[in-house]
Each structure stands twice: as C-alpha cells, then as structure tokens.
C-alpha cells in the first residue's frame, strides 16, 4: 500500500526547495542587474559637483592662474607620472578613492569622455588615487578594472599630493591649462558634459 501522506510530504518538501532555489536565483540576478544600473546611471543634476573658488575651499594656498604644484607619482602599472610632463595639454586632475560612492558614479562619465576624445587631443586625465586613505592596492585594482579606466591612475601613497592640493573631500577635480596653471576647482562628481565644457576652447 502506498503511503500517500509520505509521498505528499516529499513532494511538498521538493516543491518548497525548488521555490527557495528559484527565489535565490531571482534575488541574485536582480541584485546584479540593479548594481550594474546603479554604476552606470546618469548623475542627477542636483548631485553634480560645483565649481568652488580657490580661496574658499581646500586646505592649501592655491590660486587661480598660479602654476599647479608639480608632483611625480607611480601608477598601478608601475609607470612614473610627472605633472609638468603634460605641459602643452589641458589636464583634468581628479582625486578619488575606491570606497567613495560619488566617485563610482563619476568614473563611467570620465571614461566615456576620455574615449570620445579625438586622436591627438590636447587633453589628459590624471586620476590620482588617495592610496594612503584607500583600502589597499587590490581594491584599487578591482575598481580600475570594474570601471574599465584607461587613463593614468597615479597612486598618492604618502598623501602628500592630496595635502598639497588641499583635498578635503572627494571627488575633487582641478582643470590645469596648457601652461600648467590652475584654472578651475570642482568639488563633487563631474559628468561627461561638464568635462566637455571645462576643456572646451
């Protein structure tokens, strides 16, 4: 004689297990999709960075039109980057860290802008990582790979460069002109359109 109660219990247990498994799969897929959407979403206008006067923000005595403090740092790939080597080009000097949420919104915008530059453009991005305040080289490397950053990423391991530039919040971005002079300081994330406006002319 067949134990129908036992069979029914077994069927119910199997059904519940399948439902639980399906729920976990849906939760995982939705989480991955949502994460990718969040990382690539447009930055709302009210969340964008704003231009701030040099004498009203920052912990350094920087002045608009003054020569940008020179520095030499090593990148993740082991190359040496010296700011003064970029004379003749406009430099977007950005300060960031891998744990910084606004930086995560900003980086796809910077990368899109960088990729859209025509060959031979007189614009370069230097994305200086606040390595002394970050979570280690592995996290920095993961961030760079996740956001497919192809511009130079100098590592400020001592914190001296961010201190020299008076960086008190991140992301902070400076525009340096072809003569190596400070022109603009922006506190908060930038988007592709803002970068185009900054580097136009």
The SS-based structural class is alpha+beta
Strand content: 15-25%
Assigned CATH architecture of the largest domain: 3-Layer(aba) Sandwich
CATH superfamily of the largest domain: Glutaredoxin
The description of the largest β-sheet is: 5 strands, mixed
Taking Cα atoms only, what radius of gyration do you get, to the nearest Å? 24 Å
Averaged pLDDT: 84
CATH fold type of the largest domain:
Glutaredoxin
How many structural domains can be distinguished in the coordinates? 2
Low-confidence blocks of residues: 32-42
Quick one: CATH class of the largest domain? Alpha Beta
Determine the N-to-C terminus distance. Answer: 89 Å
Order of helices and strands: HEEEEHEHHEEH
Arrangement of strands in the largest sheet: 1-7-6-4-5
What global shape is seen? elongated
Q: Helix fraction? A: 25-40%
Number of helices: 5
Number of extended strands? 7
């Amino acid at each position: 004689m067949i134990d129908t109660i036992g069979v029914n219990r077994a069927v119910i247990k199997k059904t519940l297990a399948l439902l639980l498994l399906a729920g976990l799969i849906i939760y995982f897929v939705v989480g991955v999709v949502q994460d990718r959407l969040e990382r690539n979403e447009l930055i709302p206008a009210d969340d964008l960075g704003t231009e701030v006067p040099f004498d009203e923000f920052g912990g350094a005595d920087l002045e608009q039109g003054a020569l940008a403090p020179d520095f030499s740092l090593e990148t993740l790939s082991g190359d040496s980057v010296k700011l003064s080597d970029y004379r003749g080009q406009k430099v977007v000097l950005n300060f960031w860290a891998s744990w910084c949420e606004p930086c995560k919104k900003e980086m796809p915008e910077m990368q899109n802008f960088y990729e859209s530059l025509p060959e031979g453009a007189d614009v370069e991005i230097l994305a200086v990582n606040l390595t002394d305040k970050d979570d280690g080289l592995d996290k920095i490397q993961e961030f760079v790979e996740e956001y497919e950053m192809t511009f130079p990423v100098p590592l400020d391991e001592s914190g001296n460069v961010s201190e020299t530039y008076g960086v008190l919040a991140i992301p902070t971005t400076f525009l340096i002109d072809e003569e190596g002079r400070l022109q603009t300081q922006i506190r908060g994330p930038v988007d592709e359109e803002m970068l185009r406006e900054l580097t136009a002319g």
